[in-house]
């Protein structure tokens, strides 16, 4: 048996935002919890994703907002102060020093173990710090895998030292010429940020549109906005060759016609840039965890049920949350899953004597031996992962959506009704900016008279999303939403206009 210092009730692999939340929630009934992290405590979101990327994007947003208002526009001029933007980004990323995050972990009563963890047996791991030593760590009750994901770099870029989201969000110089390969969230946000900072940006999109997970009108709005600011967006583009020398990165790009016929051609393009950012997707970081010892496939997502318990592992002791499950791809949804699994563990393995446990501490439908019955919308089930996931893209304009798109709702066989409204027609728009442009759309299940999806496109629409998320999760009937009176003059008045357009 491992010594006492190396044995804990729960061991969490990964000290990013997801792992921290799992550990904190799991410890609340008195379970001993260790968190294993080989790199910076705080993870991707704190240092290379959510926080530094928004710090890069915010100055351009603020400048554009001021320039859109007569009177304020006269007070601003010139370009962004690049050095100041990067310095502020460094502050937001804590200069890539995790001392503050470590203090939080320790202050929460958790044990931080520095090193890389690999399974050697069920509930048993070898943890190897950077100094090459090793220690055996055993979990009495459960192990939670929250190791996140890593950028996928296609083989064509293997020898050109491409940027991924990490290099882009931590860059200390701005390339004169930047190619962005991809059309998703990272690609469009970083194209926006570096165009603001002065790069000549080309976006190479393999598919027919940017932001393919969103409604088509949202992607088109972002593509138009990028184009008006000098960003070239090439759809139907595939990089077939990439080399690097002292002159930069040389790309050979094949173009094919896209569905609207506006882009394409037989002749390959030769494009030279200073840096190429590859934003073509992410993969779960499960390839070096020793999962084969448990009969699981390394490098694959961990399939879980709604308790975030890993399927196919006997004993019900292995859990996973965040990107490693393939269910979620955002920090906020990963933290939601973390709260669920943390609460499941805290309740299921509550170490307090029966007489001191609060009434109802065992989750609805969850027995002490781990058997479970369905419990929709229980705090012990990650129900929102199915059809109530919110997403914000901090491009200009911003894009925010939750739930199903129109296409998804139709594929799901719902009785679909779609209503839209131009945000520029609201009274609030006239005092927000000259020529304010944006659109709101609701996807309705007409049979149940509820909202199942919502999309907002326009300046500062991210803050409108949570109201839609509440409507989707709560399945609030439209007849009831009619009585939720929006304040005037705010962009939230669009809810009234959408209900009127739906005839409610």
TrEMBL record:
It comes from the Bacteria. Its cofactor is FAD. Residues 389-495 form the Pyridine nucleotide-disulphide oxidoreductase dimerisation domain. Keywords: FAD, Flavoprotein, NAD. The keyword NAD applies. InterPro entries: Class-I_Pyr_Nuc-Dis_Oxidored (IPR050151), FAD/NAD-bd_sf (IPR036188), FAD/NAD-binding_dom (IPR023753), FAD/NAD-linked_Rdtase_dimer_sf (IPR016156), Pyr_nuc-diS_OxRdtase (IPR001100), Pyr_nucl-diS_OxRdtase_dimer (IPR004099). Residues 8-333 form the FAD/NAD(P)-binding domain. Belongs to the class-I pyridine nucleotide-disulfide oxidoreductase family. This is NAD(P)/FAD-dependent oxidoreductase. It comes from Cellulomonas wangsupingiae.
């Amino acid at each position: 048996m491992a010594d006492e210092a190396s044995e804990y009730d729960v061991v969490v692999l990964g000290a990013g935002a997801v792992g921290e939340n799992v550990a904190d929630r799991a410890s609340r009934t008195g379970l001993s919890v260790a968190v294993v992290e080989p790199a910076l405590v705080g993870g991707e979101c704190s240092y290379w994703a959510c926080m530094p990327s928004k710090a890069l994007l915010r100055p351009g947003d603020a400048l554009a907002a001021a320039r859109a208002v007569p009177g304020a526009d006269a007070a601003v001029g010139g370009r962004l102060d690049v050095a100041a933007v990067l310095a502020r980004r460094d502050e937001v990323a804590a200069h890539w020093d995790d001392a503050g995050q470590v203090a939080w972990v320790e202050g929460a009563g958790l044990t931080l173990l520095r090193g890389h963890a690999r399974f050697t047996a069920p509930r048993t791991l070898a943890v190897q710090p950077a100094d090459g030593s090793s220690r055996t760590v055993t979990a009495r009750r459960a192990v939670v895998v929250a190791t996140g994901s890593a950028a996928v770099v296609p083989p064509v870029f293997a020898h050109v030292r491409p940027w991924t989201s990490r290099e882009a969000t931590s860059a200390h110089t701005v390339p004169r010429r930047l190619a962005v390969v991809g059309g998703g969230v990272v690609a469009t946000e970083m194209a926006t940020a570096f165009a603001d900072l002065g790069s000549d940006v080309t976006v190479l999109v393999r598919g027919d549109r940017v932001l393919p997970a969103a409604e088509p009108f949202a992607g088109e709005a972002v593509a138009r906005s990028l184009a008006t600011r000098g960003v070239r967006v090439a759809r139907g583009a595939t990089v077939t060759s990439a080399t690097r020398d002292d002159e930069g990165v040389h790309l050979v790009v094949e173009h094919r016609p896209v569905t609207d016929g506006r882009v394409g051609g037989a002749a390959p393009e030769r494009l030279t840039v200073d840096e190429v950012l590859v934003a073509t997707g992410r993969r779960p970081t499960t390839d070096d965890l020793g999962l084969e010892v448990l009969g699981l496939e390394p490098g694959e997502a961990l399939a879980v049920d709604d308790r975030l318990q890993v399927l196919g592992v006997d004993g019900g002791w292995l859990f996973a949350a965040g990107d490693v499950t393939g269910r979620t791809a955002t920090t906020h949804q990963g933290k939601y899953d973390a709260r669920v699994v943390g609460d499941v563990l805290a309740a299921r393995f509550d170490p307090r004597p029966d007489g001191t446990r609060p009434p109802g501490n065992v989750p609805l439908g969850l027995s002490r031996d781990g058997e479970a019955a369905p419990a929709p919308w229980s705090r012990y089930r990650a129900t929102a992962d199915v059809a109530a996931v919110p997403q914000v893209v901090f491009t200009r304009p911003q894009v925010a959506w939750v739930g199903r798109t129109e296409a998804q709702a139709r594929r799901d066989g719902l009785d679909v009704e779609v209503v839209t409204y131009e945000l520029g027609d609201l009274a609030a728009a006239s005092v927000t900016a000259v020529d304010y442009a944006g659109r709101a759309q609701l996807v309705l299940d007409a049979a149940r008279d509820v909202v199942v999806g919502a999309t907002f496109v326009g300046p500062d629409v991210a803050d409108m999303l949570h109201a839609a998320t509440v409507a989707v999760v709560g399945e609030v009937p439209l007849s009831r939403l009619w009585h939720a009176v929006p304040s005037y003059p705010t962009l939230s008045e669009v809810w009234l206009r959408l209900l009127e357009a739906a005839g409610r």
